[in-house]
Specification:
466 residues; 16 strands; 15% strand
């Protein structure tokens, strides 16, 4: 397996989430931005976008040796603009050294300039290996309760350890062929904004609407079209997604003045991505299909960060053909998707997942505050927790934010409390006890009373200290 040396200033192809490989430049990170723990990575600024991120070394390739390869598999307008931006950068002479340097010259150039190469060579997966940049195909159809064409790719490191990367059909070729159907999207909140951004980046034609119209401006600049009302968006598009805050908002969007129902015609697809109760989903499905429309529910599991990165988990239920028509859209917005059968099943599963997550967050906050109350170091508690069986990026991120007093919303506290309430109600409907969720719900209600509704769910911590 070939290795190359990378350093600040090098042009590279970087793979971020489920985006196709994108041209970028290795730069110095901001002083206040810490490198992710336990990962070999570089900080990359991507051309043609405002995006920048820490990228693991196995997700990077030198720009010039792989330029033709990447151009062949990526055809989108924004991708071409990014490549043009690189070429303009090189023309100005800022990238001359990178443009003329080959892999074999890299070490020589580094030594001649007196720069130190990394103490340990960092391995970049080359094109003769199976890697995140190269494709494969899977003809195996997705079955109910199963991720779309999910597979595992195993990459051997020089150390002999094994890195396992899960990939579904969203990224097998490192790119996505967008559907030729016109896409509508209603609701540009924390989750919807990331979804729309990824749809546009992957080359979809998207028309947007939001109750607060100003939120549409950024996406119009990125190439989206503007719909004046939900009805107009649906009438203009073959597939329309919606992602709003709660059952009332979802119902009003469909049934209200100039609502979705007024734009539904036979064959139009409506995809409800909001986390709502199964009864509301069933009602919306009935009214959409009564007009000849096609319906799918597809709530998403994740956060604002995962939405921005195109790493959501999509739970779908309803008309299977709509699920298949939405394939490229789901590939753009998520790392995997599940088809769960009849309408209502996705809503039920999503509420169960969020019930567990919300209860877990409340328990973590309880542990942190108990540690403080008994004279124990909260940071030590977190360090120990992250070395044990409960270690996860969720625990690490939420606890670090709590200790830093950072409650910027990644998933609104008011929304996780809503999900707990709906899950408890669902348990009541089948006479199933939910005592843990009920206890957690009371803590979140206390946090809401302390004016934490619009903060992140981790702000439930404040319910224990007031």
């Amino acid at each position: 397996m070939a290795t190359v040396h990378l350093r600040i200033g090098d042009l590279v192809w970087g793979k971020l989430g489920r985006y196709p490989p994108w041209p970028g430049k290795i730069v110095s990170p901001p002083k206040d931005l810490k490198k992710p723990r336990g990962k070999k990575c570089f900080f990359v600024k991507f051309f043609g976008t405002e995006d920048h991120a820490w990228i693991k070394v196995e997700q990077l390739k030198p720009y010039h040796p792989h330029k033709e390869e990447m151009i062949k598999i990526n055809k989108g307008k924004r991708f071409q603009q990014a490549v043009d931006a690189v070429e303009e950068f090189l023309k100005k002479g800022k990238g001359k050294d990178q443009g003329s340097r080959s892999n074999s010259d890299d070490k020589k150039s580094t030594e001649s300039k007196g720069r130190k190469a990394p103490a340990k060579p960092m391995k970049i997966i080359e094109e003769d290996d199976e890697d995140p940049f190269k494709g494969g195909s899977s003809d195996k159809p997705a079955s109910s309760m199963e991720p779309i064409s999910k597979r595992l790719k195993i990459v051997e490191e020089d150390t002999g350890s094994t890195s396992i990367q899960a990939a579904d059909s969203t990224a097998l070729n490192g790119s996505i062929t967008p559907t030729d159907k016109r896409i509508g999207f209603l609701g540009l909140g924390l989750m919807g904004s990331g979804v729309v951004s990824n749809l546009l980046k992957m080359g979809h034609v998207v028309t947007v609407w939001n109750r607060t119209a100003e939120k549409c401006d950024l996406f119009i600049q990125e190439g989206a079209r503007l719909g004046r009302t939900p009805a107009e968006v649906v009438s203009m598009c073959e597939i329309t997604f919606s992602c709003v805050s709660d059952p009332k908002a979802a119902r009003d969007l469909v049934l209200g003045p100039s609502g979705v129902l007024q734009g539904i015609r036979p064959g139009k697809c409506y995809v409800e991505m909001s986390t709502i109760d199964p009864e509301t989903v069933a009602e919306l499905s009935q009214v959409i299909t009564s007009r000849g429309g096609r319906f799918l529910e597809a709530p998403v599991s994740g956060s604002q960060q995962l939405s921005n990165e195109g790493m959501l988990v999509i739970l779908a239920a309803g008309e299977r053909s709509v699920y298949e028509d939405c394939s490229s859209c789901f590939q753009a917005m998520g790392k995997t998707s599940f088809f769960l059968g009849e309408v209502g099943n996705a809503a039920r599963m999503m509420l169960i997942l969020n019930m567990v997550q919300g209860s877990y967050m409340a328990t973590i906050a309880e542990g942190l505050t108990l540690a403080q109350a008994t004279g124990q170091s909260q940071q030590t508690f977190l360090d120990i927790l992250c070395q044990g069986q409960m270690a996860s990026s969720f625990v690490d991120q939420k606890c670090q934010n709590i200790l830093q007093g950072n409650f910027k919303p990644d998933y609104y506290l008011k929304h996780i409390q809503k999900d707990l309430r709906l899950a408890i109600s669902m348990g009541d409907s089948v006479n199933h006890p939910t005592p843990m969720a009920a206890a957690a719900n009371e803590v979140y209600k206390r946090a809401k009373a302390l004016d934490q509704s619009d903060n992140d769910m981790s702000a439930v911590y404040r319910a224990y200290i007031h």
